Amino acid sequence: MLDTATIRAFLEDHHLDLASDVAAIAARRIAPLPPPEDDDAGRRQALEILGILGKENLYGYAIPESYGGLPGAPDLRACCLIRERLAAASPLADDIFALQCLGSMPITLAGTEEQRHRYLPEVSTGRAMAAFAMTEPEAGSDVSAMTTTARRDGGEWILSGRKHFISNAGLADFYTVFAVTDPEAGHRGISCFLVEADAPGLEYVGPQILSSPHPLGELLFDDCRLPSEALLGIEGGGFKLGMGTLDRLRATVAAAACGMASRALEEALSHSAQRKQFGKALGEFQLVQQKLARMATDLTASRLLTFRAARQADQGAERVTLESAMAKLFATESAQRVVDDAVQILGGAGVLASSPVDRLYRSVRALRIYEGTSEVQHLIIARQIQKAFEAESRS
User: Fold this and answer.
1) In the annotation, is 218 catalytic?
2) Chain segment 277-330, per-residue pLDDT in tens
3) What is the pTM of this model?
4) Catalytic residue among 56, 84, 323, 371
5) With CB atoms 3.0 to 4.6 Å apart as the test, which of 33, 64, 105, 231 could cross-link to 245 if both were Cys?
């Protein structure tokens, strides 16, 4: 159901080849993996998937060529296509790819030459697992409420605080960690640090279990000592770096939503064609047809918004804040509806734990929350269009 003709205007020829290649990789190497039964199994499978995607060189589309990536990378449209295909086959595989992008993007954007050469080639091959540590118990959408601190101690930094809802916690080889270096400066007092998993004072304090298998957990920084070169970017530039990273990658979240929605629509079409009720196929009933039509329309609109934002980023737009917010908002909300309609069409079969649409139902909900909730996306969009209107009115 991921028809590249719909988004052909946004793609280059090599993207079409990539779409086919990733679909084949997902079918051959990802789809046959059994759904993890618990968190431990999910963590083992996450590491297995990390290696698979690394061997297939998929992370290379997120890493600049001079640091181990592929020519033309970072290529956001390629990353969107990869996330679509992976999410349709395995939400966990999509998560692993996404976290490699998210954890390494701050290094790509602001790292020193030494930091880039040290970390990015390892991420590109899958030899190192990355993670992005911003969220705290009292600081989710409100990043300025962050309480994790970093203070200088001679030639070192000392981190103290707690992070939670951190994907790849306990598995990652390194974390990009955001902490307050100047409590009086608000969000301008936040800085970013590269923290190795074995850094003294860093403790993984346990998993946080989701309804869908995903390596999530909490991190404790108990006077965690870091060398001075662990600072990523400039002191006080962490908020801008974090928001820039999320702004750039937000369209890929929308792409993952498209992948889940496309798989749900495919399962619904197949079931409605085969399942007989009252002497005819479900797909012949007008109420079912109405659902299918709405699902397909939502999916098509989502993909157009997604690849519009990704293309603008690839073409060098300084910011794609409005476009990526629209894509994430619409695609994730639409995917929730599409998956729910698929469950309804499948009926009892749709809520069996073994059903693909049941797995999608448990996975799709998080997309409306992470990397900026739907409510936050509404605020971003409103502020962007208000600013544009005011600027136009003054001109």
Assistant:
1) no
2) 999 999 999 999 999 999 999 999 999 999 999 999 999 998 899 999 999 999
3) 0.96
4) 371
5) 105
